[in-house]
Write a structure and sequence with these properties.
single chain; about 190 residues; mainly alpha; 6 helices
Length: about 190
């Protein structure tokens, strides 16, 4: 999950950086866009580092490396175009932004999408294994419940038979005609 979250954060922030790049060019070189661009670049780099640490397999690590490399190439090109724009070569900067720099952005965005798919697949796979483990746990619990109920029924039967056998014998004695009088008489003799 951490891998997917970090890749998503990198993608979102990198997209915001592309907006800052366009805002810088469209505003005539306003520094506020460039400052946001630089702040976000640090956050994107941190997100890539987090994703690289959290990658679970070689395929995820390769996807992060590819996206990060593409992002860094675009970052160098975008900084170069902003510097050219600030230096007064606006036409060349816009041409770069609409040509090679845009192509670099598209390339790293494609690599980011691949990394995001790998993250989503890992989450789905983890979700499936949790579901399987949950189903197995429920099956085990049901088996144990049935076994516990069977044992409880056996114990209850034994207890009832142990208690009721003497009660039935006593009832049989009292059910005979004159049994109560004989019992009272016997008790009275013992007491004397």
């Amino acid at each position: 999950v951490e891998y997917a979250r970090a890749i998503d954060a990198a993608a979102l922030r990198a997209k915001a950086m592309a907006n800052d790049e366009r805002g810088f060019l469209l505003s005539g070189g306003r520094d506020s866009f460039r400052e946001r661009f630089e702040r976000r670049s640090q956050r994107v780099s941190a997100s890539f580092a987090t994703a690289a640490r959290a990658a679970e397999d070689a395929e995820q690590r390769a996807a992060v490396r590819e996206a990060r490399t593409g992002f860094e190439l675009w970052l160098v090109a975008a900084r170069s175009e902003m510097a050219a724009f600030k230096a007064g070569d606006r036409e060349a900067a816009v041409t770069e932004a609409l040509g090679p720099t845009r192509d670099l952005r598209y390339a790293y965005e494609q690599a980011l999408r691949r990394a995001q798919r790998l993250g989503a697949t890992a989450i789905e796979s983890g979700s499936d294994s949790v579901s399987t483990a949950s189903s197995q746990s429920i099956a085990f619990l049901l088996i144990y419940l049935v076994a516990a109920l069977a044992i409880a029924a056996l114990i209850a039967t034994w207890i009832v038979r142990t208690i009721l056998r003497p009660v039935y014998a006593l009832l049989a004695i009292f059910a005979e005609p004159g049994a109560t009088e004989r019992l009272v008489e016997r008790y009275s003799r013992v007491q004397r």
